Amino acid sequence: MNSVRQRRLQRGWSQAELAERAGISRAAVSAIEVERLVPAVTAALSLARVFSCSVEELFDEQAVSRDAQTSWAFLPPTEPWRFWEAEVSGRRWRFPAERTGELNGFHDGVSGSPDVPSTLAQETLVVAGCDPAAGLLAQEYYRRTGWRMLILQRNSTQSLELLKQGLVHVAGLHFSNSEHASDNERTVREMLGTGYLLLRAAEWQEGIAAGRHVSAKTASGAVRAQLRWVGRAAGSAARRCQDELLSPKYRMRYVAPDHRSVAESIRAGWADAGVCVQLVCEEAGLQFFPVQQEAYDLCFAQKHEQDPRIRALIALIQAANYRSLLGDLPGYATERVGGLETVGSE
User: Fold this and answer.
1) Is the pTM for the entire model greater than 0.85?
2) Which of 3, 96, 124, 332 could disulfide-pair with 148, CB 3.0 to 4.6 Å?
């Protein structure tokens, strides 16, 4: 319950007059009065100031505290900014809309506006990772469950850091390859400790993407050639591959944040070559020279294994029809997809 309407009528104000005094829209005033809208904290404070009372006196304390629990996972570049809402680890977070919005659907609100809290928050699984086929996973997840998968494009180290901070449900990483088969588990143990599970989500070919004008025929030939390289960001698994191919001291004019950005840079003529996965290379019509097969795992806390959203993710990835769809993608292998491993002590 709130006393906005009662206090407004006592002062003889119209809804438009109150809206102007409080700096919000008349529609917001109307929705708040009939309790179709729980006001944002800033709106609640503004209304309380106008009526010269406390927020607690004006609004139901439980409703206000519920809205106050919604915080930015990380700050938007500017205000106002579109956002998605999701519940992670018992807290409601706002995630600034990113360029991957086409994967995540319509935004839930705009900062600075008195938006209705999203009804999708508890039906959203937040995944940070760099899999360029994440759109396929999100599409199948929605088709099977009706729930949303919010995808944040981050490299392996960044994804694990978000998981450590409790801002995402799942983090993707791909440090493991044929020569370093346990590096995904080792990295999780070093960054997060034990008590985590690794779900094998894909195995893919990582290598060198090169423009059609490049005369090299192999990865070693591309390394020896005098090419303009687009680099990979520090902390990414692709950066480790890049450093092994070239040198950690090799200076890059451009640094790409993800696999698709590498292919885009080469196709646009800004670079001749770069490290990425086969899928985005073939999508862009570039040459691809394989270097190694990597294991892409999804990491989540063992204590959250029974979360229905996590259980639905596991069931989807272990389903034969999903593995069949994944196996049709260039460079993807599915023999070990769906395996679940506990990150234990050494």
Assistant:
1) no
2) 124
* Per-domain boundaries in the chain: 4-66, 72-193+302-332+339-343, 205-293
Phi/psi at 31 (5° precision)? -65, -35
CA distance 81 to 225: 45
Residue 92 φ/ψ, nearest 5 degrees: -95, 125
Q: 3-state secondary structure string, 148-171? A: EEEEEECCHHHHHHHHHCCCCCEE
| CA dist list (Å): 16 to 24, 42, 94, 112, 278 | 9, 18, 29, 19, 58
First to last CA, the chain: 55
Residue labelled with tokens 């503004």: 46
d(CA 207, CA 290): 4
Scanning the chain, the segments in alpha helix (DSSP H) are 4-10, 15-22, 26-33, 41-51, 55-58, 61-68, 101-104, 134-145, 156-164, 183-191, 219-224, 237-245, 259-267, 278-283, 308-318, 320-327
Examine domains 4-66 and 205-293 and report if their fold is the same. Answer: no
Domain covering 72-193+302-332+339-343, topology: D-Maltodextrin-Binding Protein; domain 2 (3.40.190)
The reply to whether omega before 76 is within 30° of 0 (cis) is no
Which candidate, 241, 243, 273, 276, places its Cα nearest to that of 257?
A: 276
C-alpha–C-alpha distance, residues 168 and 247, integer Å: 33
Q: Domain 205-293: give its CATH code.
A: 3.40.190.10
Under DSSP, the state recorded for 304 is: G
pLDDT single digits (tens) 199-250: 999 999 999 999 999 999 999 999 999 999 999 999 999 999 999 999 887 8
Contact 234, 169 (CB under 8 A): no
Q: Which CATH number fits domain 4-66: 1.25.40.10, 3.40.1170.60, 2.40.50.140, 1.10.260.40?
A: 1.10.260.40
Quick: pLDDT tens for 130-142: 999 999 999 999 9
